[in-house]
Each structure stands twice: as structure tokens, then as C-alpha cells.
Amino acid sequence: MLNLIPKPVYAKEGNGRFVLPDNAAVYSEIDLPLIKNKGAEDSCIKIFKDANLAKEEYYLTINDNGVLIKASDAAGAYYALQSVRMLGRLDEGKNELPFVEIKDKPKYSWRGLSLDESRHFFGKENVKKYLDDMFRLKLNVFHWHLTDDQGWRIEIKKYPLLTEIGSKRAYTHLGGWHCYRIENKEYGGYYTQEDIREIVEYAAQRCISILPEIDVPAHFAAALASYPELACRNIKRDVFGGFGGIVFTKNKIFDWNRPCCMGKKSSLDFIFDVYDEACSLFPFEYFHVGGDECDFSEWKKCPDCQRVMKENGFTNEQQLQQKLTNELCVFLKKKGKKMLAWNDILKKGYENIDKDVVVQQWLPGQDKNTVAFAQNGGKILMSNHKSFYFDMTYAQYPLKNTYDFSPKKYKIENEECLIGIEAQVWTEWIRTFDKVQFMAHPRMEALAETAWTPDCEKDFKDFLGRYEGYKSVYASLGINFAADEICMPKNRIKRSYIVRKFFRGNPDYEFNENNRLKETKK
Ligand SMILES: [Zn+2]
């Protein structure tokens, strides 16, 4: 069995092994800046450019003559080298490559993974590690959630208070969504524009595009804490330290996602100014505007919002949000960008939404609006909750949920409308990067295979067999991952106990247990 995830489209093993010499040189007709040891045409690793191959596609043979690779672009060449790296277990200091012939290319052109750095902030070096993990598994879009109620993490020069005030919160909610424990300790962090350029460049070298998300008009409390005049009512607010819209006051008031005012010109100017600066930092042709979970209660009471509704003949506040969605779409188009938004923007129908918007479907079940949008020419990115919400416990969503994803279950039958799949790592209950890795591995491997390998070649048992080889590689690279007992839990009673704890009391139950298991195995 070849030790490769994602499983290649075609692979034929031969008899024999090629021993890679120390510091093997690489001859390449394709410019590959990450290759340190470049050699002449007689090098034992040769990469030839073949314009007949598609983007990201590669051809790889390993035999007595060494390693031969063909690709049409850097991504294809690097992916072939990643396969070589894994086949030879080079990260473990090994050097024997099995004879093999591989022809390989991805199923989807969008193979994404997100990281929420608003709820918790992990910093530049960890983001680079995350990108390395994605690159190893041939994932190619990093969705970076940079703003939310609990912290603004991207420097915007025109609005310095966004990071001066908005990047810090005074307290943090602990213990799960249905728990009211708090930690009274300042928490903060943000990326300067220079940091962002560095990370964008680091990702680009690894053939990963960065999709920034600046969530509007809701999930906006950090911006409102910095500039209260952007809200419908100009009142002083803190950056939220509560998760799930819970505000900690004496009376435990439930207060969900107060949005930006849609009636004041200055508020809308703010959004466009921020997008203008952010667009210049991210070369990717897509930009995520969020658009999810907007509460309309402030807009209903706001004279400015109501005036705009009247002027436009709107009968509900959803139309007011649709107006913003379409204006953002036009704005981004002028910048040569396509817009992504969560499927929430399709509430009350898809008809008024610009067909160039890509809708990211996150709901656990089928969504009739998403299906209708797709059937009428709209494009969809699938991030179904049950398969791709990696922040949820393995007890609730075991590993197989990710592996078994099929768009057909969600009535996205027409592959033309599906641009790809993407998993989400929200971080309300993930305070360390060690835990990010724990939640993501081995789900990320299942995501990679689901996004890459044709359905007819997929088999969960076979996948688990191949994954065995990754465990020692990850151990030697210091990458945390969930043990089999944790990511494929069997005991139903224990599973429901873990899920209950996750919401009320201890969201780290599995993580702690995994650490205990690692200790006992030592
Ligand atoms: Zn308003």
C-alpha cells in the first residue's frame, strides 16, 4: 500500500527501491523557489515542464534511474515532490523510495481550510506551520477569519483605533457556549500590514491562496467598540469577551451580533474604505464578506436605516442587507475580485442576489435557498457543518463524517455549480495552536482526500491504513493529532457525555484525554 494522502488518481507500484542520496539535487524546468539544492540535468530528481498537463496535475515515476516528474506549473511539481517526501518518509530521516508510477490531479480546484483568529490569536509563526500542513496535504486555499465581535486582527491604516482598541478584550468566556464562566484577563493581538504581506508571500510560495474574511454587517462588535458612531445608536461598547452573542452583565442579557448601521453614509464609507485597504493586501481573486447571523433589531428601531428602507421601497430588513451585499459585490468586481458570503445572505430568496457571488453553505442540513441559487446558475462552496466544522468535538462529528461528505446529500447535484469544499476551524474553545492541530488532524487528511480523490477511488478503511504512516511523521515533526480512540469514538454514552461537557463545563475534555493517552503510550 502506498503511504499517500490524498490517494492518487492512478498509482502502480513496481518492485524495487531507489535510495535517495544525501542532499539529492533537483533539476527543474519549472521555477521552484523553495528548492534549495538545484542541480544539472543529470540530477537524480528531474522535473520537466509538460504544457499538456492541467494546472496542479503531475506525473511521477520512481525507478532505478531516480525520480522523474512532469507538471505544467509549480503547484503540480511541488505536489509531486510532496508525494516523494511522504513515500520516502524523508521527514523521519529515511531515504528509500518505492518504485512507482503515479498520474494525479485534484477533483476540486478549491480545497480550503479556515482559521478563526478573532476568537483566539495564534500569530505569524503558527499560521506558517498551518500553511505547511496544508501544503503537505495539497490543500490550496487558506480562509483567514480576521475580524469578529471578539477582536479585530488586521491593521487598517485609515482607522487605527480598529487595532488600538478593537484588537483587545478585557475578558474571555470559558467553559462552553452554555456556561457563564469568565476569565478577567486582557487578551489581544493583531497583524500589521507588513505581517500580512509576509504571510501572503509565504502562502503563495506554497501555492496557497489566502481568502481574507472581513465580516459585515454583523459580527462587528470589535469595530463598534473602536468607532461607536458606526452603529445605529452611538453608545460606548466593549470588545466582546463572550462567545455566541452572550454579553456578561449582572442580568446575563442575551445580545446577538449588533451590526453596522445601514442608514448612515459614514458607516457605509467605513466598510468600503476598509475593504479598499484589505483588497490591496490580498492578491487572491476572491474576498469573503461574511454576511452571516445578522440581527435586525437595531435596524428596526434606527431612523436612518428605516429612512433608507422607505426610499428603496423595502418591506423587510433582509432587503437592506441584500442591498449592502450587492453593493459590495459591485465594489469588489471593480477591483477585479469575486465575492464570497455565507449562505445566510440567501434568506428570503436568491433572486435579488448577484449571480457572481459565491455562496458558502455552512448549515448542517440541506438548504433550499442554496439549492435554488445553484440551480439558477449560482456558484457554491460547500462547508457543511457535520463534515467540515472542525471546531466541534469528535464525539459529535467523528472523523468519518468528514471522509463521507458528498455534495449530493445536500442536493448540490450539478458539479458545475460547486467550486470546491472547505473546512472551518472556529476557535471560541481553542485557546492554543496545539489544540488547533488536535482538532484538525486527522480531519484535515480526510478533507484533503475528499477534495482531491475521485469518489470511486475513496475507501475509509484504506484511508485509515495509509494514515498510519503519517502518525510517526507527525510525531517527528511535532504536529499534534487526535488518537484513533478520540477521533473515532465508539462508546455512545461517553460520546453524549463529551458533547454535553463541550457545551457546558469543559470544551477541552477530548484534548485533555488525548494528552493523557499520549503520556501513557510513551
Ligand atoms: Zn441604522
Features:
522 residues, alpha/beta, Chitobiase, domain 2, TIM Barrel, 2 domains, eight-stranded parallel beta barrel, 20 strands, 35% helix, binds zinc ion
Description:
It is a single chain. The protein has 522 residues and is an alpha/beta fold. It has two domains: 10-104, Chitobiase/beta-hexosaminidase domain 2-like (Chitobiase, domain 2); 110-465, Glycosidases (TIM Barrel, Alpha-Beta Barrel), CATH 3.20.20.80. Helix content is 35%, strand content 19%. The strands form five sheets. It has an eight-stranded parallel β-barrel, surrounded by five helices. Strands 1-6-4-5-3-2 form a six-stranded mixed sheet, covered by helices on one side. It has a two-stranded antiparallel ribbon with strand order 9-10. β7 (110-116), α2 (124-136) and β8 form a beta-alpha-beta unit. α2 packs parallel to α4. The protein is globular and about 75 Å long. The mean pLDDT is 95. The chain binds zinc ion (ZN). Zinc ion binds at residues 232, 261-263, 299, 302, 304-305. Residues 232, 261-263, 299, 302, 304-305 line the site of zinc ion.
